[in-house]
Specification:
Elements (H helix, E strand, L loop, with lengths): L6 E2 L6 E2 L5 E3 L6 E3 L7 H9 L20 H36 L1
Protein name: PHD-type domain-containing protein
Keywords: Metal-binding, Zinc, Zinc-finger
GO molecular function, one term: zinc ion binding
Length: about 110
């Protein structure tokens, strides 16, 4: 959803900087600013993390994707946050174990 060369937003026709997170329609392959398509940075990063294709307003149909409903986005965000918390807890547990091992060796 981000990176690469400078692209033009198909909605406002302005340049989208390389350093800015942008949307890329998986159907028509056009690029958009997040603001122009009213997509939050959190939702854009969520789609990227889940490797889900995004569809612009022109390519989206009412039944195309659960992302078209706020409850679908909120539910997915909640699941992703739970997974991240669980992953972080596992990392913390592993780090504590490694610290104990190092302390025992000294």
């Amino acid at each position: 959803m981000a990176g690469g060369s400078i692209k033009k937003c198909d909605a406002c026709k302005k340049n989208i900087s390389k350093s800015v997170l942008r949307l890329h329609c998986g159907v028509c392959k056009r690029f958009f600013h997040l603001e122009c398509e009213k997509v939050s940075e959190v939702d854009a990063r969520l789609m990227a993390a889940e490797k889900r294709a995004w569809k612009c307003g022109s390519c989206r149909t009412p039944l195309a994707s659960p992302l078209s409903t706020r409850s679908g986005v909120a539910g997915r965000r909640s699941i992703l946050m739970s997974q991240l918390i669980n992953d972080q807890s596992d990392v913390i547990t592993e780090l504590k174990s490694l610290i104990r091992q190092l302390q025992d060796e000294n």
